[in-house]
Specification:
Elements: H1 2-16, E1 33-36, E2 40-44, E3 48-50, E4 53-56, E5 66-69, E6 75-77, E7 82-85, E8 89-97, E9 100-109, E10 120-124, E11 136-141, H2 148-158, H3 162-178, H4 180-189, H5 193-206, E12 238-244, E13 251-253, E14 258-266, E15 274-280, E16 296-299
Parallel strand pairs: 2-9
Antiparallel strand pairs: 1-4, 3-7, 5-8, 6-7, 8-9, 10-11, 11-12, 12-14, 13-14, 14-15, 15-16
Helix pairs in contact: 2-3, 3-4
Protein name: Ig domain-containing protein
InterPro entries: Big_2, DUF6935, Invasin/intimin_cell_adhesion
Domain BIG2: 30-107
Length: 320
């Protein structure tokens, strides 16, 4: 008799227990739909436009959007929905969240104007050997490099200075956002191997498809004039401002047999107003920098740590 009462009580309790939130999926809320802000766009070759995906419901647990292009010879799309026109023709961009999809028709027309000439200029001086507080420098450039050769062209102009290596890092990271293969090649040209590998790992997350985590505007945040309020729209020409880390004297690295220079890059993307980055120049065999000709990055966690999100009523328009 006692046993039957216990079984009944357990059965009754189970029967009257409400389903967990999310329809019995262990507390998760599934995706019921996905929409795009545009169903068709028209670009010129080398033109860019960002498509925005909205997932329903708004409280969906996982907001990862996978993007793909039906014809990458015509149009490429990044994990943040930025579409680039490659060559004249048509393609379909598809966004997928869960098992829901939405599409945007892309038409690319032959460019009526050539790609803006790439130019870069460096000013200021940061001592290569002696820690000198308050020293600073800037790098100005017309647009981001489009190829590895253009990146090397920039390196020839600015790579022999510490703040030049900082600017090259920001260029390489943005290039990675646009084209993984080209960007990764540039990252390896500008970093010690350990930092190159760690940077690529972190950038896969920053430029990934998780709407809650991704920061497609991460590198824009390090350009003068860009703020969360204005959607990280920088002034032109693009300007990167770098200064010596006053509180961190240069230190000798026994691994690379050289001094590590500790710098800070200015940004409106963090409350402190700066992010740290460390550079060096080494002749160590097998290390980038062409046998000590160019500075390379030793450590750059400040550049691949999330910046502030843009304001709710702002949108990121991309970078040239």
């Amino acid at each position: 008799m006692t046993l039957s009462v216990i079984v009944c009580a357990m059965a009754c309790d189970k029967e009257n227990t409400p389903d967990p939130p999310g329809g019995g999926n262990g507390g998760t809320t599934g995706v019921t739909g996905i929409t795009l802000n545009k169903t068709s766009i028209e670009l010129e070759e080398n033109g860019r436009e960002t498509i925005t995906a909205t997932i329903a419901p708004a409280n969906a647990t996982f907001k990862t959007v996978a993007w793909n292009s039906s014809n990458e010879a015509v149009a490429k799309v990044t994990n943040s929905g930025e579409v680039t026109g490659v060559a004249a023709g048509t393609a379909t961009v598809t966004a997928k969240a869960g098992n829901k999809t939405a599409t945007c028709a892309v038409t690319v027309k032959a460019s009526t104007k050539p790609l803006e000439a790439f130019s870069v200029k460096i000013t200021g001086a940061i001592d290569h050997n002696t820690h000198t507080p308050n020293q600073s420098g800037t790098v100005e450039f017309s647009r981001f490099p489009a190829t590895v050769d253009e990146f090397k062209q920039a390196r020839d102009v600015i790579g022999s200075e510490p703040h030049g290596a900082v600017a090259l890092q920001i260029m390489a990271f943005e290039m990675y956002r646009r084209d993984r293969k080209v960007g990764e090649a540039c990252i390896h040209l500008n970093n010690v191997t350990t930092n190159a590998n760690e940077s690529v790992r972190r950038l896969k997350e920053l430029f990934g498809s998780d709407q809650n985590y991704a920061r497609p505007y991460q590198m824009a945040a390090f350009l003068k004039g860009a703020t969360p309020r204005n959607g990280y729209k920088p002034d032109k020409p693009y300007t990167i401002e770098v200064r010596v880390n006053n509180g961190n004297a240069y230190k000798h690295s026994s691994i690379y047999n050289t001094k590590v220079i500790y710098l800070q890059v200015l940004t409106a993307g963090t409350d402190g107003g700066t992010r740290n980055i460390d550079v060096l120049k080494t002749r160590k065999p097998g290390t980038p920098g062409e046998n000590g000709k160019f500075f390379i990055v030793f450590n750059s966690p400040g550049l691949d740590s999330q910046v502030k999100k843009i304001a709710p009523d702002a949108s990121f328009k991309g970078l040239d």
